[in-house]
Amino acid sequence: MKLLMGLLFLFILVGCGDGVEVERDAYSDPDKVFDEALQAHKDGKYEEALRKHIWFHQYALDYQLSLSGVRLSYALNDWRCLGTKYPDALVALEYFVDKAEDEIKDGGDIYSIFHDFESINEVLGNEERTIALFEWLDRNDGRLAEKVSNLARQALIDAEKYTLVGKYLDSERELDMQLMQLDVVSNFDVPGAKDGEMEAYAYETFSEEIQTMVAILAKNGRLDEIERVSRKVEEKWDNEDFRAQLELARRGVFPERKKNNSACCCQSECDESE
Q1: How many domains does the structure of the chain reveal?
Q2: Which of 35, 155, 168, 242 could cross-link 130 (Cys pair, CB 3.0–4.6 Å)?
């Protein structure tokens, strides 16, 4: 029923009103569409802003895969912010959550759809829906649950569901992946980046991911794995601050979550209206 109501809302939004339709071929430049959505939001043209957010969410990656990060961060944050002034925007977001859940249960492209599902839930503060769907996957198809376990991990940790998050943690495989990513990212040449900026980012991310992994192992009493992981990472990075944080993780202390830095250009206005 909720999905049906969402479909009805979208039909009314794109098919009526001033006659503007949100179709794939309506635009071809997702960067421009996103900028126009932000500007329309600032100018109080809320229906236009919502139409362009919907188009960007549905079609941006068809034109430019590099926008995947923006699509699930800056764009969703501005969309949620829009919803504090224009409730139909929240109705639309909830529609896409419901649609993603139905597609996952019907056997859709599990990883990308679950990524959308989890990201929208985080923006809306509905992490319990992410947990509920992951628990459904765990009960019904552990293979699929394993595929998206990293996406559900933070929500599960926040809810203190340590046994479930530990069930899908392969520490040896994850450590190898983190070491490989550290080498790749720290040597990645990004135009415009300051000297050493990417290396600093790589080690900061590595530190947080390793701390999280070790804390999960600690919560599940997997002491032998903690010793093996600790030995390998300390051989890779002999850093006093990192060792101190790793010691906390060995006691089951998770790293402090970073504040979301993907706030939209209207975020201050959004915060004031809530």
Answers
A1: 2
A2: 155
